[in-house]
């Protein structure tokens, strides 16, 4: 019931060293793999581990092939990016095991007459699809999801259980939105009059491109007048907050708990470590990388890695250093006084 | 199909300079507005942009009126707070376009017999309303919401899809709770015995005043014995966490990802930037403003703006400065040694 | 309708000084308690308050008993851990008032034929239970919850309304999962090829032990290949994010908004203050305590309290100190220059 190595190479490319008739039933890490598994070497430091692997075959790079060929007895699939190859093969095996729901609308779902549900889409139990919403071919709207009026869900996009996707928002093809995410809630916009807040209606949309993944319990607010835009290939982890009118550039990735305040414009191919925060109305260039726990309080126009968090220490040490941080201006004054005194002394001599 | 300027001034006040018969169909920013739009000038620096605006009319302040009157050809509505006026007019136009559900209970909702649903309230698909809950006139409980036993939802309050509002909690009139918010989950309270946690039942409520807005996926915990209180006019953005037994003073606003630990008391008219954190049992006075990303670890009894986050830098620079921060006590010692040596030297001379 | 002190001592232990026939109807803090209440003294500093309490009886420690016996007129239950005793008695009284749903499956729930629902379990309105899922005796799955294919919910575990518990994940007995929590969403795992992310299927599970409590809107991701593991007795507050393949040791507690990146291993009996963050692949030993707002960027192998956040200051003071922090290397250079000059001077003399 396995898949022939020959078939994998036909599907995913790469050069096979070994018998194409060997069958594998799945993929496993070097140390855990059995002789029914394919494994992968994506880090040359693990060559010794590869040599001892029980896997039937390994995915590896041309660089590692000569050494591994000499020490490891199994077949090899040689490819320039073994980790990407592993991802694709893992997707292939996962799809074989996945239990897909049959297309159609669960009888317990509430679907407006004017909603346009593709016959090959799936609408799960207790889902609500409002008037004018359009659900594309192969899309999957799981149990308890809400899709608002005139929203568009692209082909093969998957909303996991209990996602809320508000009116008029749009997501392209092959997207994934994880449970509890809320797309298109009102942005946080108010005018102040005599200390009281007056709500500014949020009438823009959230417009999401193709191949975007949005994590569990993340929130992306709709724009105030214009739209909030998430470009193609963006990957957002869990519990991320994107304020109204932001634009997140294509193929940018953010780890869990990141927050981006309203009207920030973020470039392409950026990465944000967990709990990084971006203030509103800032601009971040392409290829900027923000470390975890760092607060971006000014625009960052030059590519590179940026960091800003207080280093962890034993509590007593932190208390001492934090007390000095609070008084750094005093320390600077002391140094200036010393410099002055010494200037006088050196003049004297 | 537009609205006469004369009618807007009747509704919202202000002084009209121009023809009251001019009709506008909506509101737009200075640069985007067409001759069917009203626009607004809330920042005097944009006077030049106002002069060139295609808008049929502008909302502006008495201060800007003379200059703009001389350069801009359209009508003007003169008012002391143009941004607040804009907000009200925008609400008016948004309400004209809003598709409101008809009052009544969706047949797929689960409503306990003893729940008291006002005939002008709306209960959406798959909503659950438990026994004894009371839903006020004009209130709107959207799809998938849960309203627990004996909870009270005030008149004209709107729970967006998939809100959870637990037993005995209360919200006043004209409130908005966005999708995924959880009101009245248990506070985090335990006794410790031999390293094991014993749960302390959380039997208080969450009591929310009038005109409060709570963002998507925010959480407000019920009190342990007494109540958690959110006063009138408070505005909370998305993904905010309010611990048990907190009190948030009237007209305080918090941006996304703020966290407030249990039993903190926060004054009126405060603001909190995104991801600011407040430790438990602290007191924060009225009119305190906490910057984004700042940790409040002591009570703040004096009004003003407070900040505390590590400044962002290129990663290599941060590594150098963080290494010094870790060793600030050593630096202080060096300065003391220098001061001592110099004292000796100056005595010598 | 109260409970006799004698019965409480029979149930929960402790030594009674006073009349076992006295009845109490509930528990209240020292200052609020009436003569129908039991109260507790868990902090010796409050002895004076205890003396004046109107409570019918007090729970207190042997240490406080002599003083309190002399000043307070009521009965006493003497026990080594009054706070833990209070927690148990409070649970007892809360259970008396709790309105439990009758076991059974709400007619509006969607339950797969092959799901195994214990006859003493409760499945609420609009819940979805997929094929092969198993719900234990006395478990309670409230309105709007989703329990995926082949998931296991242990005996007496309670999922509050709108929890999402994904396929094949497991939770033990007596657990509590609060509303909006998402257990078993995909971990954040991608290979990169030419700047584009390729999803790595997340095929592990989340495996949760007994007596675990998980807060509202918290998220725990399923493992990539192996499982994410939450051991017995762990207590997680609201809005916590646990990445894929983490292990959280038994009886560790985390306050709200904590984030733990993937593959971190955290020991037993640790505590994390609100909004603390842990980077991926780190190891944290048993009995480590991380303060609120602190970023753990290296493994912590020694027990103790650790802290790292920038101290709050008035904004103008923070601006001055932050500017110096940005230039600490310059300050260090100045000190080195001073040291050098002084060395020359002292040699001269």
Automatic annotation (TrEMBL), chains A, B, C:
GO terms for biological process: lipid A biosynthetic process. GO terms for cellular component: membrane. One of its GO terms (molecular function) is N-acyltransferase activity. Its EC number is 2.3.1.191. It catalyses: a UDP-3-O-[(3R)-3-hydroxyacyl]-alpha-D-glucosamine + a (3R)-hydroxyacyl-[ACP] = a UDP-2-N,3-O-bis[(3R)-3-hydroxyacyl]-alpha-D-glucosamine + holo-[ACP] + H(+). InterPro entries: Hexapep (IPR001451), Hexapep_transf_CS (IPR018357), LpxD (IPR007691), Trimer_LpxA-like_sf (IPR011004), UDP_GlcNAc_AcTrfase_non-rep (IPR020573). It is an enzyme of class 2 (transferase). Residues 22-91 form the UDP-3-O-[3-hydroxymyristoyl] glucosamine N-acyltransferase non-repeat region domain. Pfam families: Hexapep (PF00132), Hexapep_2 (PF14602), LpxD (PF04613). The keyword Heme does not apply. Keywords: Acyltransferase, Lipid A biosynthesis, Lipid biosynthesis, Lipid metabolism, Repeat, Transferase. The keyword 4Fe-4S does not apply. Pathway: Bacterial outer membrane biogenesis; LPS lipid A biosynthesis. The active site is at 244 (proton acceptor). Catalyzes the N-acylation of UDP-3-O-acylglucosamine using 3-hydroxyacyl-ACP as the acyl donor. Is involved in the biosynthesis of lipid A, a phosphorylated glycolipid that anchors the lipopolysaccharide to the outer membrane of the cell. Belongs to the transferase hexapeptide repeat family. LpxD subfamily. NCBIfam families: lipid_A_lpxD, PRK00892.1. Homotrimer. This is UDP-3-O-acylglucosamine N-acyltransferase. It comes from Massilia horti. The gene is lpxD.
